[in-house]
Amino acid sequence: MTRSILILNGPNLNLLGTRQPEVYGPTTLADIEAMCYRKAKVLGIEIVFAQSNHEGALIDTLHAARGVHDGIVLNAGAYTHTSVALMDAISSIMLPVVELHLSNIHAREEFRRTSFIAPVAIGQICGFGAAGYPLAMDALLSYFGETE
Ligand code: DQA
User: Fold this and answer.
1) How many domains does the chain have?
2) Quick one: which of 50, 63, 62 has its CA closest to 13?
3) For ligand 1, what atom is nearest to the CA of residue 12?
4) What is the CATH number of the domain that holds 27?
5) Which of 8, 53, 55, 63 has the fewest Cβ atoms within 10 Å of its own Cβ atom?
């Protein structure tokens, strides 16, 4: 059975490349998407890559992942630090979620240290820039291996 992973990106990540490159690096979201597709080919898995600036749309996409994907890589952007609704959505869908951030959220402003995603994620990857995306895919595959 071919594994399928949803890679879901939240608000403002569509602006990567031009958005605070000193914090988030020069890589665009399209570059990251291409990187993820190359990685998926190597791993022999399927991926769907998506982005929304809207909390409700992100929740709808998480709900729709049930029965379609085996796991999720989620960069919820600033909703990480505010959204009980996203946390509840993850709790409700019974799919493993890897929380991902390009920047090291623990080394920035105090408010970024709070994550509503962390308590319901299987783990968190942050601080490795765009390279975190393929790392998160590896993490999910490792989790699948251990849970089979
Ligand atoms: C981010 C970190 C968040 O604190 C921030 O609001 C983002 C991006 C990251 O990838 O480093 O939008 O999730």
Assistant:
1) 1
2) 50
3) 12
4) 3.40.50.9100
5) 63
